[in-house]
What does this fold into?
Amino acid sequence: MITWEGVMPAVTTKFTSEDELDLVMFEKNIKAQLDAGVNGIILGGTLGEASTLTKKEKEILIKTSLDIVEGKVPVIINIAEQSTKEAIEVAQNAEKVGAKGLMVLPPMRYKATDYETVTYFKAIANSVSLPIMIYNNPVDYKIEVTLDMMEELLECENIQAIKESTRDITNVIRFQNRFGDRLKVFTGVDTLGMESLVVGADGWVAGLVCAYPAETVAIYELVKAGRIQEALEIYKWFIPLLELDINPQLVQNIKLAEVATGIGTEHVRAPRLPLQGAERERVLGVIDNAMKNRPVLPDYKNLTSLA
It folds into this structure.
């Protein structure tokens, strides 16, 4: 059972300089997320460098996360495998080792038809009992989950949420108008995070939250409390940072931001490499400017007492 709402960080995977999992820094980051008030932890997404992780490493990350969160929030693992068979195996193993939910991408190496995509998602959903969030990102993955496709997918009771990353925030409303509470809608694009929440998104699968958890959760809580102007002031400060998420080097960018806030390292796994030259200086400039002007946050965990 997952309550699909709030901020759920798509966390980065921490590596040592020897290219091993850095579970010490990973724990430090996850604890920072929990302290900020996030509602779930999503492992092994694009930001988590899923394509470079072994099955064993994914299992270690699930078990480590479960130990850290101690049941406070659900641990969700991303499914982005090369075949339906492999996706089912990873999903079933995730359930076996204790993951509480799945986020599932469409087929990753083949531009499937609508029928093939629905069949793929259903096959995974029917192989486990875990609650599932479908990831809808046609910009990056070239496959769109349409309203009609979602109608079919909701025949599977454990498909319960969608990460809406089409860049069209009116899709939040379209999905809600069509399916009501049967489908929870999350925004998946950092630079449309606040806008999507204002029009009614249930939650935010976020990226820069990896480095700035409190600011991200504060925006969510302020919007949900109707305190739009206060949320907007934080969001205006945040936007140059959030733009680091909509970039092919988003992993390197966000890891640099994690270094600045003391809850991560710069180590990425090849073929990714740390940023170089002018682009590195540009990103560091954005982060440095943000750190110098970091906002003082309201007591966003107790907004009722402030209203």
Summary: The two ends are 31 Å apart (CA to CA). The chain has a mean pLDDT of 96.
